Amino acid sequence: MTTARLGLFAMFGRLAEPPEPRTGAWRIRTDDGREGVVLMEAGRICWANHELVGRLSDEIERRYGVSRTAIEQVIRQCREQHQPFAASLVDHGYVTEPQLSSVLRDHTCRSILLLVKSGVRDCEWLPHQAGGYAPGTTLSVTQAACYCVATVKGMAADKLEASLEDMLAGDAAGMLIHAGSKLPFAASAVPMTWPQLRRWLAWAARVEELSPLPSRSYLAGRGQSGGWLLWRAGGMIGLAVTTSEDAQRRLLLRVASQLSSWSVDQVA
Amino acid sequence: MTTPPDLDRLRRELPQCLGVAWFSGAPLRLAVASGEPAGDAWPDWNTVARLASTLLHDGPIASPEVLFRLPEVVLLVAERAGGVVAVAIALTPAGAGVALVQARMAASRVQP
Fold it and tell me: Do B67 and A221 touch (CB under 8 A)?
């Protein structure tokens, strides 16, 4: 339990530390007397909800034109057969997995943002059994945090993530940092812990403060196993951290060959 | 091996070498240098001295060698016994890989 009102980063710091085996739900109470929930499985965020955020099914209908009748039929079937609703929509071919992932992320992050905006007072952990969420539709805590930051800033979080992964290609953990605000706008698909995000972000900000990298430049360090790479294009800084020599070599080659044309589509 | 007063000779022998410097002490300070790190568009040696410790020791992974790839220059900063050496090489059509090899070779010749 916490008693102090939590800001966005403090809230994610709390969400990042569920008790082992890290599967369950955070029940979150806010200043306005409402409640929200953040479901987690093995430390990853599966879903969040707040009563003031619209229903996921409405959003799926609006975005992808899946009829209300079809959605209600899937819901009924899921209740009878104890199957997860979202994954069943993919199984029935109503949405693709990327579409599902996108709408889930958006719904989850808008819910978390609304919780924070309402003033988070209590985060209570309720352990439960695994919900069987598909890993591809879940978010790491760092991904969710960056997605929320990008959303608050009016950026296209999905596009920022895609630009980051163009460079990382699954070889590295890392993030995109907005040079002006020093805020992280996208986090890697390769897991990065919350303490790593905080430490690496502070370090990148320190480097930027000492001497801003010129646009289309990069810095690379190589350690005993893996290394890091910091690059800049316009107002965006990328940071990547690898844990093997091969991954570092691939990353370096990719950044060296793509940096001159790499761009970040930020418009939401 | 090249001693600090020989840095000018080292640069003469490698035309692409824009600058070479040796840093020592804690905090790191510029001990001796010849040339400039990367022209007007980027930091002087004192800025490199301030950056070096942060980059070599405080990054996500400690790295005995850091490569700066600037639009027209490759700058290598490497830790050595007793200090840090930095070498700036102008990029040529031969590419950054060749510049990095040249920087490493030059850095290996610098000793306190």
Answer: yes
Name the residue in chain A with its Cα closest to that of B78: A221
B28: left (phi over 0), alpha (psi -120 to 50) or beta: beta
Per-residue pLDDT of chain B (112 residues; tens, 9 = 90+): 555 558 899 999 998 999 999 999 999 999 999 998 876 656 789 999 999 999 999 999 999 999 999 888 999 999 999 899 999 999 988 888 899 999 999 999 887 6
pLDDT tens readout for residues A26-41? 999 999 888 999 999 9
Contact between chains at A210 and B51 (C-beta distance less than 8 A): yes
Across the interface, whether the CB atoms of A228 and B56 are under 8 A apart is answered no
Residues contacting B94, CB < 8 A, separation 6+: none
> Mutate which of B42, B56, B67 to test chain A, going by most A C-beta atoms within 10 A?
B67
Give, in order, the Cα–Cα distances in Å from A251 to each of A7, A84, A168: 34, 37, 7
How many CB pairs lie under 8 A apart between chains A and B? 67
Interface probe for B, chosen from A216, A219, A231, A259 (most Cβ of B below 10 Å), is: A219
Q: Do residues A110 and A116 touch, judged by C-beta distance below 8 A?
A: no
Angle between helices A97-118 and A8-15 (to 10 degrees): 120
Mention every residue, 6+ apart, whose C-beta is less than 8 A from residue A76: none
Residue ranges making up the domain that contains B90? 4-108
Output phi, psi for A59, to 5 deg: -65, -40
- Which chain A residues have a beta carbon less than 8 Å from that of B71? 214, 216-217
Of B51, B59, B71, the CB nearest to A214: B71
Q: If DSSP codes are grouped into helix, strand and coil, which group holds residue B1? A: coil
Nearest to A222 among B43, B65, B68 (CB): B65
The structural domains of chain A, with segments of one domain joined by +, span: 8-137, 141-258
CATH class held by domain A141-258? alpha beta
Q: In CATH, what number is assigned to the domain containing residue B29? A: 3.30.450.30
Distance from CA of A217 to the nearest CA of B (A): 5
**Count of domains observed in chain B:** 1
ipTM rounded to 2 decimals? 0.90
